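Pipeline run #58 for the internal structure catalog. This entry was flagged by the ingest filter as a single-chain record with no existing model, so it goes straight to prediction. Upstream metadata was stripped on purpose; only the residue string is passed forward. Reviewer on rotation: M.T. Logging verbosity set to normal.
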Amino acid sequence: MQDHIKKEDRLFFKRDISWLSFNYRVLMEAKDESLPLFERIKFLSIFSSNLEEFYRIRVSEHRNILIDSKAAEEDKMYAAETLNNIHAEVGRQLNEFDSFFKNEISKEMYRHHIILYDGINVEQVHKEFIRTYFIEEVFPYLEPMIILPGMINSFIRDNRLYMIIRVKKRGKKDSEIDSSYFIMKVPYSKIPRFVELPQIDDYYYLMFVEDLIRMNLDYIFKGYDIDGGYTFRVSRDADFMISLESRQNLVEEIRKKVRKRKIGDANRVVYDARMPHDYLDFICKAFRFSTERCISEGSHLNLEDLIKLPNPIGVSLTEQAPYPLRIRDFDNSVSIFKVIKKKDMLLQFPYQSFEYVIRFLNDAAFDPDVEEIKLTQYRVAENSAVINSLISAARNGKNVTVFVELKARFDEENNFANAEKMRKAGIKIIYSLPGLKVHSKMILVLRKQQEWGFAKSYACMSTGNFNEKTAKLYSDLMIITRNSDVIEEIATLFDMLENGIMPATFNHILVSQFNMVDRVRFMINREIENVRLGKKGRIILKMNGIHDQQMIGMLYDASEEGVEIDLIVRGICCLVPNKSFSSNIKVTRIVDSYLEHSRVWYFYSDGDEDLFITSADWMKRNLNRRIETSFPVYDPEIKREIINGLMIQLSDNVKACWIDENLSNIYKKDGRFSNPVRAQRMIYENLKNNHHSLE
């Protein structure tokens, strides 16, 4: 047994630097030459989109601490240090991104006879088309506005692309005093970001719309000499806190906060790396931007739009997702309920069809014995089939209650709209709890309780949202059960959400704010005790993020005692592996076609194997400021299927990386493995061969 290091000397990665390590792993996926071209381009788009949200939320939080007069000096010092770390790492990643896009992706496109014009070397045959397209399709939507220093100028919208142009009247001397600056918002709703030009021989030509505009500035500014035009955009503070202590006026308070998000402080000004310094200085003075918040980002901005890049070649340049599998037990039965009556069922998305969840709700809507349906809504799809099924149930006389979490970031307005739609259809809407975000994913179908109690009711327990669109993109687990003990506790939790948090005892499900942390501590300590008794100690935890230092500390304790621990963490991981206090902990990160979103907790328990699927990550917010649930897996077949999935993921040597003590992503595919294992593909094939069929 190794000597234990003092707890105060243990290390933790900074949360935001760890997240940047994850986003760099996304960039690594774009660099994977084994992927088709447009799959690689998709990951470039994801990298850019992730970074934009990171600035709007996480960087905003640190900047708000710096300007908060009530913040402790220690917190301000930490925020300033973190911002410096972020600036350095983001700068490095953006330089690498820009170089890769220009030197690798553009060349790969050319090899496939796709030319993305840079706005400079344009074929003569295209110039007339570009002029005509500009005049007819683009020019009507342009609104150039002169910018005067020292005056109140037009507001710069969040995450919109703008162009700044400097002009001077013809015949005037070449001096700054004779120059004028204009800005124009690049159209984004009426005009595609990428313009498709006429094909030449077997080559396809594409162009950024801002480059097309830049080529036609002389048409806009007739009688002027054009000095130059460069793009920039602003990321605004999108973070906000709700301080109300009751549900009264909560809806209106959140509405106000969402509206203010659009005019939040600028926390990042991103500009074309070719922009001269005097242009940038002028922008900062005219719009009162801090030069410290300005970041150059290559010659093209807003590259999350790369997801919209036209693919003139077709499917050969994309990675085709396998078709969602059908489940024969469900397809061969007239009712989902008849299947669940015999046994619990596991659904694995996106490998299996989400249509069965809609069927489950529709069966509940038309079953004469169903009295109530309760559901938590965190993020739902637009024009949601889930919501349509609930509306059908309400119109069929069922008592339908939906808990709507209004504080689901960036989905607040969609949740408002869906809540109003359901309310008008007769569904009872329960809004957010002040001070707590409800992140739990559960559906409850209650059938004639007075006659049967909970014995013939049903519950859906999930690691992800009830969202048919993300179910095609996110890897999640869902169990449908008729276990009356579990259902009774879920019913208790729903009652608490509806009537207010009250003391309760949960013996089966784990609920944050109640028994979750204590139960996890007990299970970790049990593994430690088994090792001390000479037995095996084993923990596997799959989550999106691990941040809470108390929870990490418990894993360090277990590692020092000899418990073997595997973490599968997609995103933030503040646990530092490969140290004396973490020598028995390995951290795996998988980034592949689907977003790894399921959360699973496994404890060996001297062979009894406790297993939970859960909505909870080990982030401070999840454990302290949310209602999260972890559901025990009791069915032996389902338990074995989920554990096998964990083992496949730990064996992945194609898309899996180790996270090392320097936060580097170290590919497992280093030549030691003769048989490649790509977990997402292997899980799909296993399911396909196990009593499933293709639709």
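catalog note: The mean pLDDT is 90.
catalog note: The first strand starts at residue 114 and ends at 117.
status: ready for reviewer M.T.
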